[in-house]
Structures
1.
Amino acid sequence: MQHFAGKTVLVTGAGSGLGRAIALAFAAEGASVVAAGRTAASLEETAALIEAAGGTAAAITADVTDSGLLRDLVHATVTRFGSLDIAVNNAGILRGTVPAAEIGEEDWDAVLRTNVTGVWLAMKHQIAHMKDNGGGVIVNISSNLGAHLRIPNAAAYITSKAAVSALTRAAALDHIHQGIRINAVSPGACAAPMSLRPGETEADRTERVKSENPLGRVASAEEVAAAVLHLASPMAGAMVGTDLVIDSGSSA
């Protein structure tokens, strides 16, 4: 069965890693998928992978820090596929991996602008459409770093993702009465480029995490994507403001 047949799904940050895995997973379940992000070439690759597997996709460039582009992204999605039923706000960056007082102001601003304001702006325009068109579902990608776990030398990222977790819950309460169900997924390290340390290979990461988390391995991008699909599905219809942590037990 294709559980999302007839649905249109918008995924930001869909050009690689977790965002691409989420886009592929929704397409495999029958959704028409808009892969959005800043780099046209990687988005086109995601769309091509979906289409090669028999799915339906479009690649649209947009920067989540630009409100006008996000408004246009929602409009383009609806124009192309007729609706916007589900949005996954995945775009995010990691910068300023030094002690808190040594973070450059430019890095701090960039992380907060992309990871927090970008999610808020995306929801702002997604909700504006959904509330007038029968509701919808939004899943924000947060992190186990933030509300659930802290580590040294990641203060900007931790602050931004704690804010995403709080923003998700607040927005969920504000908009559930409009038929818009909002939740978050908070992955730990997963099999995506962002979890690699500088100079680290995937094999190096595999060895490192054997002793770093209770499960002894990182989650696959597909495992995280499966959680996103669950939250977006009718089976999770009573889940409102949930922040679902998938981190191999790191923050247990």
2.
Amino acid sequence: MRIDMWLDTCDPWSYLGLRHLRTAMDAFDHGDEIEVYLHAYLLDPDLDAPIDKPRVVALVESGAATLEEVREADERMRSLGAREGVRFDFDSLVIAPTSRAHRVIAAAHDADIDTDTVAGPDSLHLKVAEAIMRSHFEMGLDVSHPEVLIGCAQDIGMPGQLAALAIEDEEWASRVYSDYQMAMHMGVTSVPTYVLDAQFLVDGHQTVTAFSNILATAWDNARKDHA
């Protein structure tokens, strides 16, 4: 079974969504037979450099939200994360472009293809994406910085030279843009969004329990289609 997931590394719902999906796959009897393909979605495609001011100030000044709305949303995410051992540190968070992060994630997927480790919840692809988002949301690091991204890659066993190549090579930049354009063509307007076996679209926040049910249903339907 194949799952295509559109996400952005600066989106807290994408971070929780990836963690929930991996947890559900790990507990699913056929989780090692599921291939997840992560696709880039750029929530702020025009951002080309880190913003040198506190996140809450930048959000309020841009008109994206009021101070009260930011605080309410942050508190909700902190509460959700705390239940699962995720410590969202929104006060230290750096607003930065995400294209480079997506390039490294795409390169990790290429590495999985080379080593035939695409399937299952512990592919390099998925672990790199989660490591990058952890650095962004929990450690206050600038994940547009090459050294941070290379460090994230090396921490989970991805060759640092591959991450460095992905950051600079236009091939991966083009793939990130193509993923984003594909999302636009499909009408994807928010993340995370999931497509299972090119048939079933699921969007928005899903709990581990919800994912467990979704995986079981999609797996059964796939078996019926091939019966």
3.
Amino acid sequence: MTKLADIGLIGLAVMGENLVLNMESKGYTVAVYNRTVEKVDKFIKGRGAGKNFIGAHSIKELCASLEKPRKVMMLVKAGQPVDDFIDLIIPHLEEGDIIIDGGNSHFPDTIRRTKYVESKGLLYIGTGVSGGEEGALKGPSMMPGGSPAAWPAVKDIFQSVAAKVEDGSPCCDWVGEDGAGHFVKMVHNGIEYGDMQIICEAYQLMKEMLGMSSDEMHEVFKEWNKGDLDSYLIEITRDILGYKEDGEALVEKILDTAGQKGTGKWTGVSALDLGIPLTLIGESVFARCLSAQKDLRVEASKVIEGPKVKFEGDKAQMINDLKDALFGAKIISYAQGYNLMMEAAKEYNWNLNYGGIALMWRGGCIIRSVFLADIKKAFDKNPTLANLLLDPYFKGKVEKAQAGWRRVCATALSYGIPVPALTSALCYFDGFRSERLPANLLQAQRDYFGAHTYERIDKPRGEFFHTNWTGRGGDTASTTYDV
């Protein structure tokens, strides 16, 4: 009798191919299917030749080749294709079987799909998979959520293929109910947007303000990757700046218009919906949008003048300040991202393990860095930590970084070099540590023109007041008040 497969996968694009090769290398038999069935045959005869794969030419055939409880994983384009495949898969499964979405689905879709699949007597998992092509093959970070009853059936497979940290712990654990896994992956991607943007701002300052060559910048990033900033994104930036084509840095030949797939935007919109100040990530998304207006920027550059850039300060000191600015902003990005996850956990009744999330991000994923070990320690020490900036380690680090960070932002602004992410992060830091903000005036304005009411510092919280500011208005106040 032919051996049944441990898991099936639909979607043999780059991520799918590499992930099943990873699974097979860990001792699992994998059934594979692709809508274009020629890809199945090509894979079985090519990269999968002589290995423990079962090629299927239909979803019915794929499901029939699986051990019970059947586990069918999709790595297909997010959106309608996921819904379409779910409806194609369901008729071939039995009660207790599991459907897994490993794509970059929006978390509200995963909430909806979990309910739908469970209504059919089946179980559902929406898992974030991070690390790109290389991560899928060698060990990604995986963030599963959905039907809790499904986790024991897939735990060994997921944790076997996931990246491992120094002590052997897998960068994969159960995140929470319904859309929790895809929400955490979305926040991961938002932080990724922020990390990339602040690195790009440091690059622009080195290039335009300090006049550094790609080789000089390569050496700086090489040095930075040995300390607090040690991370995958600093590492690949080092490599990119050192890569030559015809003797010249390839990066300087690349058009300055950034693409995006939407996860950064989703993170920003979710923050707005939940009332969380996710300023650095929001600015990172808008920076990509501004970069895409290339033709308009070229036109503007010909007619609008700014200050002339002629740096006359201490170059070595500025490079050290840039390091501090990057690290300070990075702390803010994670503080904001974790703040968003905390609010989402309350909104959607998820029981998130914040230290565990840091562990999942320590290896395999795009934002992996030594920095995450300190986040895990912070939440292990205080599981109810309200904000990373209140942890003694991060408080000390950001306070130490702020002098150089402020010098970088002030100098960049004086020379007219845009640093939206670095400056918005610094403004958040200053706002967060302020006992009093000017929102009292804002509330007075709202009450003046819209009778929206206000609270008073000399009265208990929860009591609302309205003033007839002009003497011409009445005493009737608006019935809505959002703080």
4.
Amino acid sequence: MAHMDGFTYGWVNPLLAYLVACVGAALGLRCTVRALALPRERRRNWLLLAASTIGCGIWTMHFIAMMGFSVTGASVVYDIPLTLASLAVAIVVVGFGVFYVGYRPPSVLTLLVGGTLTGLGVAGMHYLGMAAMDLNGTVSYDPGIVAASVGIAVFAATAALWMTLNIRRLWASALSALVAGVAVCAMHYTAMLAVSVRLNPDDAAGGVPAAQFVLPLAVAIVVFLTVVAIVVALSPETRTRRPVEAPQQERIEVNLFDGRLR
């Protein structure tokens, strides 16, 4: 078996990965809170934004962490279509979970289904991203550790959604994001414990180095998350009820996200 090192550059990659995971989760959960404060027919755009930010956040976290992963005697490259597919899986499957929570009546079943779908999105992105990795050898996995990593993803995603649904305050979203960041990173490094590599000098790795493809895409996603953060910050929160003491006068409010006047 080849020697593998997930901390080639020390703690730089894990810390950056955790930071990006927290930012993506914080924005996504905040968008979910904004959606749930609106009537059902106006929730779609916020939920789409939530799925995109959470999915992009966990994908970027994964590949930032993977850039600190090395195998002695092998060069690690990535298959571009599979790498892009892992990003799409993260957004789409997390989207199923977010939309389920966004449109179903609040209940334990809604929370469990939404958390399970979101957690499976995290796990699916990871293992498809690992499938995109290519080197001159054979990669195998320990089934028990794989199952444990999926369980971590589902449990933590459910916990983050529970906090979001039950404590709709800014500090709750921040705490949920920290939990989700720990979950994604814990899932990632637990899953990496399941990996073993047997080198074969006759195998030819075909793909693109991370610095040529993954890194530029990760930078673009960080820019996207920054734009989303600005949108969330500038878009006024919707109040579900108008205070009784408020004067009955005509008001014009502009929602910076959906562009509607009301």
